Amino acid sequence: MARRVGICAVAQTRYKRDYWEERFQGMGLVVLESLLAQTGLDFSEKGGIDMTISVSNDIFDARTISDNGMTDVLGGHFRCEEKVDQDGAQAVYYGLAAIQSGHCDVVYILGHCKESQAQSRNRVTHLAFDPFYTRPVGLDYCCAAGLQARAYVDRAGISEQQLAEVVVRARKNAGNNPCTREIEAVTVEEVMGSPMLADPIRSLHAYPVSDGAVGMILAAEERALEITDKPVWITGAGNCMDSFFLGDRDLASNFALKTAAARAYKRAGISDPKTAFDVVELSDQYAYQLPMWAEGVGLCAEQAGGGWIDDGGPDRANVNLSGGVLAGNPIILGGLVRTAEVALQLRDEAEGHQVDGVKTGLAHGVTGPAGQFHSVITLERGGCR
């Protein structure tokens, strides 16, 4: 890809079930102050931050124009500010495009969400469906995921035991991540005995309601090398959206994810994803998605996700050492947090879950019902070429 773009700094709050003690602006200020301290940047016209991209959602924020109340911590009163109301990985893609196009040199990304203040997360995602055909039957992201999970586990032969093991591993890893230590460890028996949400998805298969904020600084190569001695280069990016109506899709096919991954791999010059990455972060909002998305990005063969779990594939490939979305990240921030976690690994800053000697990584984001819209970002440690 022309004009290399690097991630120069990353900051996150803790992810809590209810961040009652802090407003959106307060969460964002924690992230902003950390990023400015790490980089020495400000919003001055010469040599400062050129552009801000925010990630937020009007309905979760319970206000129209959710980024408007964040103006101060976004720097929107100083500079151009754009909003992404999709999975947070799209903000990284947007920043990459803005820099590579020559529009700007330094981009500040800030995402925030408080899922806890919504009366029901399912009511929020219910509004993603059309008002004539699919809202009247009560569809939301959880119901759609149930339909996809049933199609996938039947086709791939995924067992209840394997899904439970995914949850147990995610929560164990979350305990090593200072941002997600609030989530409790569970046993296989507890997972398999938890109430059913949308067959075959049980309550402990689903990511918990979460609040938090995350941000990063992107810069063109010449500026990145001035800002930090540990840039993380974005080597590839790709996305793809599947059909809107669930009946128009093969829910177990991974079509959109395979396409997004292929686009990212082509840009990065990657021919074998099984051996290309030292760390991988997948956006697993539900337990069945870890093996399904692993198939989609090419970590294992199609319909081989169950065997991949049994053979220790997630640990061998260093997948979701942060705990993943199942550890508790707001749904719209999933891909941005995954990118942040890979960047931290490549900067040797993944406190409590750092892997030694990592040089390359993959971050994945997803939004929409039943994995409708996927994004894939490939990264490498500064100094690699």
Describe the protein in words:
This protein is an alpha/beta fold and 385 residues long. It has a domain at 5-119 and 209-227: Peroxisomal Thiolase, Chain A, domain 1 (3-Layer(aba) Sandwich), CATH 3.40.47.10. It contains 15 helices and eleven strands. The chain has helices at residues 24-39, 58-61, 71-74, 89-100, 121-126, 141-156, 160-174, 188-192, 221-227, 255-268, 273-276, 289-296, 305-310, 313-316, 334-346, and strands at residues 5-12, 51-55, 80-84, 106-114, 196-198, 201-202, 211-220, 232-241, 279-281, 360-367, 373-381. The strands form two sheets. The chain has a nine-stranded mixed beta sheet. Strands 5-6 form a two-stranded antiparallel sheet. Helix 4 packs across helix 15. The mean pLDDT is 96.
Key phrases:
single chain; about 375 residues; alpha/beta; two-stranded antiparallel sheet; 15 helices; globular
